[in-house]
Amino acid sequence: MSAIQYISNSANLNFYATAIRNILSSNHKRLTLIWVPGHSGIRGNELADETAKNAWKYPFILTENHNSSDLSSYIDTVFKSKFSEIFDNSSSHYKNINFNKTSIFNFTPLKHDHKFPRAYLTKYIRLRLGHTNLTHSHLFNRSPPPSCPFCRILFSVHHLLIECPHFSTIRNSIFGNTNPITLLGDPTKSNILLTIKYLQSVGLYTQI
């Protein structure tokens, strides 16, 4: 009853009271306020009533209205922050090929060049991810992980590009003093072509 009286008092210019009166006024044919006697003696209801009566003692707080774009922006910011924290603390191959990067959102984008054969980009991206047919197809056919036929150790993208001594002559002739891994972190046209040339020269292009 006190709430109805509070709202119905036209001299009461409280924000919420005014807003409710405006809603009732514009929808008077559809909305009707009915007073229902309180359930006295029921502890939960008495506590709720007491809390409502005490509310006037606290400062009146107005909060800004937030639309969907505000929420979307906030969620995006939180997601990037959390994901970057996890990513930057990882030791993944994809992170390691991107030197001097602080998070995944600062990586150099790989732009498609229509003059490139699609297969070139496919091979290059697989090397960037560290997952190729040669190194990971065993996961699909449930066979043992592949070993380097020359070194007798597990084959990996890093081993192919950096470690395997069998390919050192070809590696040096194509990359010189440049670390091939750095080429994966900077997807320029020249870096892609050099990487593909290396794969073709060592005879592993079709297996990537």
What does this structure look like?
- By secondary structure, this protein is mainly alpha-helical.
- The protein folds into 3 domains: 2-57, no CATH class; 68-104; 108-207, no CATH class.
- It has 12 helices and no strands.
- Helix 6 (118-129) packs across helix 12 and helix 10 (168-175) packs antiparallel against helix 12 (189-201).
- The chain starts with a helix and ends in a 7-residue tail after the last helix.
- The model has no long low-confidence stretch (mean pLDDT 81).
Outline the fold blueprint.
Blueprint: H1 2-8, H2 15-26, H3 43-54, H4 68-88, H5 93-96, H6 118-129, H7 133-136, H8 138-141, H9 157-163, H10 168-175, H11 180-184, H12 189-201
Helix pairs in contact: 6-12, 10-12
Helix content: 40-55%
**Count of distinct strands:** 0
How much β-strand is present in the residues? under 5%
With helices defined by DSSP (H or I, 4 residues minimum), what is the helix count?
A: 12
Rg, please?
Answer: 33 Å
Helix and strand succession?
HHHHHHHHHHHH
Gross morphology: elongated
What's the structural domain tally?
3
Low-confidence stretches: none
Which tags fit this structure?
12 helices, 3 domains, 52% helix, 208 residues, 0% strand, mainly alpha
Compose a concise summary of this entry:
The chain has 208 residues and is mainly alpha-helical. The chain is 52% helix and 0% strand.
